[in-house]
Amino acid sequence: MRWRDAFGFAARSVERRLGRAALTVLAVALAAALLSSLLIAGNVARERVLDELTHGGPLTGIRVDAAAPGLGALDSDSARLGAPRAIDDAALARIKRLDGVRAVSPVVIHPVLMLPPDPPVRPDAKLPPGVSATTFSDLNSSIIGVDLRRAGDVPLSLVAGRLPAPDATTEVAVTLGYLQRLGLTKDQADAVVGTELEYGAPRVFRELGSATVRGRWSRALIVGVVAQDTGRDGEILAPLPQVLAARAWTQAGGDATSFGVGTSKYSALFVVAQRLDDVVRLRQAITDIGYSTSAPESLITQVQRYVHAVEIVLGGIGLIALVIAALGITNALLAAVRERRREIGVVKAIGGRDRDVRRMFLLEAAMLGSVGGLLGAFAGYAIARTLAAFVNRYLTEQGYAGVHVGLPMVIVFGTVAGAALLALVAGTIPAQRAARLPARRAMGDR
Amino acid sequence: MRGRRAESALLALVVVFVGACSGGGRSSAPQESTTPASQVFTAVVLGDAASVVASGGGAIRDTWPQQFYLHALPRGATFVNLATESLTVDAMVARAVPALAELHPKVVAVLAGMTDAGARTATGSFAASVRELLSAVRATGARRVLVATLPSGAGAVGPYNDIIRLEAARSRAVLVELSNVSVSGVRDPTTGGFVPDAAGHRAIAAAFERAYAAAFPTG
Question: How does DSSP assign A91-122, residue by residue?
Answer without folding.
Answer: HHHHHHTSTTEEEEEEEEEEEEEEE--SSSS-
